[in-house]
């Protein structure tokens, strides 16, 4: 009888353990499904917002060019739309594109980060969840020193090899410097951009870029109209390319203010600082070899991609006069915007 009693006593306990295990597994599955649902909804919402942002940006830029063309000469429009835009694109593309491609892919457990649930221990293990996030954070700072070198070399090249017609353009040196500072300013907030995208904070990008594009158009238009007043010659403008340079610089300031303000007030900014990592053998390192190698590979590929994408501007800037560059920019803006709008919508 005692044996039967012991069996009877143990049996409910076993059933209770099985029930607890089943309940735990069920709660884990429920939490996992909620996370997947949240990620999918955020992705869909973010994709829709980015499409709207591209649409607004294209329409605003197209409308701005139609007005600005009436108050500026082709040479000014050509230098701003071809040479200076090429300078900005070259610095940004070569400095960050490869790292973006590598870091925005992420790993299985490091795409979405809950900053409230990550511990702040001084020693970060590379194989832990925080270590996976820290690998991305550390590497996201590399475009900044690369950008310093790229910005200096690109601006020096533009100033040293400028043609006589380009060099004699009013405010050319100032505009080149402002475009270089604008590019470097965007690289400074690159770690914040990587963190925002990996955490599906698409609204931050949409808000900052949307406001920046609108303000950039307003400043360009205002300075162009102001520079056109009091000039007897048709298409003559006092500010010229400086209007485009100042507007681009203000756009970068808005981007920096938006990203830095968001992460300072809504995040624990200490989680975005570079920190040492430790492997299983307690060996410390800063950069993950696999991610760094992947970023270098993408950077090499981005060089070819940049040549294929901006090759027409490179040839036009090298072989043509500023007036011809302005005509080319005018034709491209008229001919390509409709296709780009349709591509954005569909």
Record keyword descriptors for this entry:
346 residues; transmembrane helix; mainly alpha; disordered N terminus; transport; 76% helix; three-stranded mixed β-sheet; membrane
Would you spell out the secondary-structure blueprint of this structure?
Elements lengths: L1 H67 L5 H30 L20 E2 L3 H11 L3 H18 L3 H4 L4 H17 L1 H9 L3 H27 L12 H26 L10 E2 L5 E2 L3 H31 L2 H24 L1
Helix pairs in contact: 1-8, 1-11, 2-4, 2-6, 2-10, 2-11, 4-6, 6-9, 8-9
Description:
- The chain has a 3-stranded mixed β-sheet, covered by helices on one side.
- The protein has one domain.
- The protein is mainly α.
- It is elongated.
- The termini are far apart.
- The N terminus is likely disordered.
- Helix 1 runs antiparallel to helix 11.
- The longest helix is centred in the N-terminal third of the chain and has 67 residues.
- The chain is built from 11 helices and 3 strands.
- It is found in: Endoplasmic reticulum membrane.
- Pathway: Protein modification; protein glycosylation.
- It comes from Racocetra fulgida.
User: How much β-strand is present in the residues?
Assistant: under 5%
Q: How does the major sheet shape up? A: 3 strands, mixed
Q: Quickly count the helices.
A: 11
Low-confidence region ranges: 1-19, 21-26, 108-112
Helical content stands at over 70%
Shape: elongated
Structural class: mainly alpha
- Measured between the Cα atoms of the first and last residue, the distance is 77 Å
Mean pLDDT, to the nearest integer, reads 80
Extended strand count? 3
Count of discrete structural domains: 1
């Amino acid at each position: 009888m005692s044996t039967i009693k012991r069996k009877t006593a143990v049996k409910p306990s076993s059933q209770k353990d099985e029930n607890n295990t089943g309940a735990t597994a069920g709660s884990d599955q429920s939490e996992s499904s909620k996370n997947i649902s949240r990620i999918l909804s955020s992705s869909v919402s973010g994709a829709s917002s980015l499409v709207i942002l591209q649409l607004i940006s294209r329409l605003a830029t197209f409308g701005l060019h139609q007005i600005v063309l009436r108050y500026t000469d082709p040479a000014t429009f050509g230098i701003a739309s071809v040479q200076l835009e090429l300078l900005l694109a070259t610095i940004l593309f070569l400095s960050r594109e490869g790292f973006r491609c590598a870091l925005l892919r992420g790993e299985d457990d490091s795409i979405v980060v809950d900053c409230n649930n990550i511990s702040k221990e001084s020693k970060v293990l590379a194989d832990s969840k925080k270590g996976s996030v820290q690998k991305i954070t550390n590497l996201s700072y590399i475009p900044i020193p690369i950008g310093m070198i790229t910005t200096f070399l690109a601006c020096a090249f533009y100033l040293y090899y400028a043609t006589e017609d380009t060099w004699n353009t009013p405010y050319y040196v100032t505009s080149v410097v402002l475009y270089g500072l604008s590019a470097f300013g965007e690289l400074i907030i690159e770690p914040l951009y990587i963190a925002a995208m990996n955490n599906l904070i698409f609204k931050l990008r949409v808000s900052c870029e949307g406001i920046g594009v609108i303000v950039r158009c307003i400043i360009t238009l205002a300075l162009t109209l102001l520079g056109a007043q009091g000039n007897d010659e048709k298409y003559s403008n006092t500010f010229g390319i400086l209007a485009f340079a100042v507007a681009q610089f203000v756009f970068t300031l808005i981007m920096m203010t938006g990203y830095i303000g968001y992460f300072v007030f809504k995040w624990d900014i200490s989680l975005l600082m570079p920190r040492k990592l430790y492997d299983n053998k307690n060996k410390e390192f800063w950069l993950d070899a696999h991610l760094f190698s992947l970023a270098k590979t993408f950077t090499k590929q981005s060089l070819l991609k940049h040549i294929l994408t901006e090759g027409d501007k490179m040839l036009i800037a090298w072989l043509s006069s500023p007036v011809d560059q302005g005509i080319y920019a005018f034709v491209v803006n008229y001919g390509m915007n409709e296709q780009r709008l349709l591509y954005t919508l569909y």
